[in-house]
Amino acid sequence: MLYVFWREERREAEEMSGKKKATLEEKFQLLRSVTKSNEANKTSILVDASKYIKDLKDKVEEAAVAAALANSSSSSSTATSVGSAMAAMVSVSWVELDSGGSGFRINVSMERSRPGLLVSVLEALEDLGLNVLDAAVSCADDAAFRLQALGSGQQGGSGSSVDVQMLRQAVLQAISKCLNHDDE
């Protein structure tokens, strides 16, 4: 009698296992079709899904930066946060320098860095005729990007300072340019 009971429980366990396996196979096929994976191996399907999610995240970041460029008419001394995951944040403020002149303090942060991002931002500052006096930078591919810089706010020594909004816009455009260049 005990043997019959054990066989019955084992049969039920095998049925449940078979149902779970079928459900899991169905989920993998769904994942395979959504990510357009041509792989049959479950591990390869998961790798393709991971790449697909990364690509989607990159597209969301790029769209968020583009939206920030379109909406950059907000107050220039406040931070511009883009996207729900803080894809890019740029804040600019004017400060008095120890030398007696005026300067700018800029903070740029992104959830992930891109190759050439730092160069693009620094070139944007240079194109405006601004000098970076001091900077702290943290950037590496696929890691967070942070730039805190203090610079001279005079353009070519002519005495006319660059508008904060113009500076913020130039940095956002440099970020967008870097992201778009990365797609090509």
From TrEMBL:
InterPro entries: bHLH-TF_ACT-like_plant, TF_AMS/ICE1/BHLH6-like
GO molecular function: DNA-binding transcription factor activity; sequence-specific DNA binding
Chief site of localization: nucleus
Coiled-coil features, chain-numbered ranges: none
UniProt subcellular location: Nucleus
Domain Plant bHLH transcription factor ACT-like: 101-176
A GO CC term attached to the entry: nucleus
Keywords for the protein's UniProt record, in alphabetical order: Nucleus
Protein name: Plant bHLH transcription factor ACT-like domain-containing protein
Organism of origin: Panicum virgatum (Blackwell switchgrass)
